[in-house]
């Protein structure tokens, strides 16, 4: 245990709120990208079982998190690092605890009542295996150690598949061909997209509206500092680390390369890019306002402070230029939606019969 019991209780409350936030964000990204859409004559990308698995993974992806990172666990020779051979010890632990909780058939007492926690109890063997594959794969994918590999894979996926995917949004295709189907390739593509949805949701505060973004930013930085005596060992120091600089760097070098590519693949997600762009500008403005009165820069001359302000302004300008593609995505999405609405695909008598039967049932 790294923290006092009372601090752990507070940490667990924050982690639960994060879990709910990530679950909701995963759902919103899926809905905005229309990956769940069922259309006449075709279907969206994800099956009902995959959607359920994603939401379960989102809720459980940080269960029992100790509020320290994998680096500290490995450096301190923690038991979790030993159990998982230094490979994603936290994420592996989350998977174990999640399945221990949700797969047991033993009643648990909660608020004086016995409750059954085995939500998979009515699954077939095949459904159980498929759900487990999605849940484990996506949770393990939230380890930030994999982030830059995910960015490269996402960029490659964009080059190969984005044009085909846009045919779905424009109404030229009833399905997202590279994702829809029972083949191994389609399933692996869906698995990758589900992993992306969860990972993007896990680091989503930079593309939320700023009032939400700012609150999460303070909590995330507080978690870094909560490692107490380990701060300097891990390179964090309250006296030199600046919240605004952290957020600018996090967005510019970590989040934006991934989210920008995801938006290229799924243009209807352009609004999260707009939020991210606005947040970067606002963090820059806050840092610019702070520099003249920053006590940590007391030894810096006014001229050097002005140079620092100029550097921030240049970063913001360049970032805004990189985000100009969002206007193209927005116009393409709106135009495609109009075209899709105007297209009236022929519906066979069999499809009408099946639709009527399903609706009646």
Word description of this protein:
The structure is a single chain. The chain has helices at residues 5-32, 48-60, 70-75, 79-83, 89-102, 125-140, 147-170, 184-202, 210-225, 231-234, 243-265, 270-290, 302-322, 325-342, 349-360; strands spanning 38-39, 42-43, 108-110, 113-115. The protein has 361 residues and is mostly helical. It has two domains: 1-202, 3'5'-cyclic nucleotide phosphodiesterase, catalytic domain (Catalytic domain of cyclic nucleotide phosphodiesterase 4b2b, Orthogonal Bundle); 207-355, no CATH class. It has a two-stranded antiparallel ribbon. Helix 1 runs antiparallel to helix 2 and helix 12 (270-290) packs antiparallel against helix 14 (325-342). It is globular, with a radius of gyration of 23 Å. The relative contact order is 0.10. Mean pLDDT is 85; it is low at 345-361.
Please outline the helices and strands.
Elements: H1 5-32, E1 38-39, E2 42-43, H2 48-60, H3 70-75, H4 79-83, H5 89-102, E3 108-110, E4 113-115, H6 125-140, H7 147-170, H8 184-202, H9 210-225, H10 231-234, H11 243-265, H12 270-290, H13 302-322, H14 325-342, H15 349-360
Antiparallel strand pairs: 1-2, 3-4
Helix pairs in contact: 1-2, 1-8, 2-6, 2-8, 5-6, 6-8, 7-11, 11-12, 12-13, 12-14
């Amino acid at each position: 245990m790294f923290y006092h019991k009372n601090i752990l209780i507070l940490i667990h409350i924050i982690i639960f709120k994060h879990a709910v936030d990530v679950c909701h964000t995963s759902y919103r990204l899926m809905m905005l990208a229309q990956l769940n859409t069922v259309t006449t004559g075709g279907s969206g990308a994800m099956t009902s079982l995959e959607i359920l698995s994603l939401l379960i993974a989102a809720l459980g992806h940080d269960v029992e998190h100790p509020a320290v990172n994998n680096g500290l666990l490995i450096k301190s020779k923690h038991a979790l690092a030993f159990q998982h051979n230094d490979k994603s010890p936290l994420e592996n632990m989350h998977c174990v605890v999640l399945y221990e909780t949700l797969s047991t058939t033993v009643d648990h007492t909660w608020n004086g009542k016995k409750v059954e926690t085995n939500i998979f109890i009515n699954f077939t063997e095949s459904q159980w295996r498929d759900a487990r594959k999605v849940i484990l794969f996506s949770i393990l994918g939230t380890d930030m150690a994999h982030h830059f590999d995910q960015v490269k894979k996402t960029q490659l996926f964009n080059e190969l598949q984005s044009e085909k995917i846009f045919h779905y949004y424009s109404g030229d295709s009833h399905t997202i061909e590279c994702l829809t189907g029972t083949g191994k390739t389609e399933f692996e593509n869906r698995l990758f997209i589900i992993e992306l949805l969860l990972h993007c949701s896990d680091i989503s505060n930079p593309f939320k509206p700023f009032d939400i973004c700012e609150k999460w930013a303070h909590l995330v930085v507080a978690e870094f500092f909560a490692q107490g005596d380990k701060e300097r060992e891990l390179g964090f120091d309250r006296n030199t680390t600046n919240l605004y600089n952290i957020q600018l760097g996090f967005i510019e070098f970590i989040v934006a390369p991934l989210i920008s590519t995801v938006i290229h693949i799924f243009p209807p997600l352009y609004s999260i890019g707009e939020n991210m762009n606005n947040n970067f500008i606002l963090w820059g403005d806050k840092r610019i306002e702070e520099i003249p009165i920053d006590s940590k820069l007391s030894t810096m001359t006014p001229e050097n402070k002005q140079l620092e302000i100029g550097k921030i302004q240049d970063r913001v300008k360049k970032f805004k230029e990189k985000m100009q593609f969002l206007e193209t995505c927005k116009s393409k999405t709106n135009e495609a939606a109009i075209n899709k609405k105007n297209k009236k695909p022929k519906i066979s008598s069999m499809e009408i019969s099946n639709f009527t039967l399903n609706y009646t049932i």
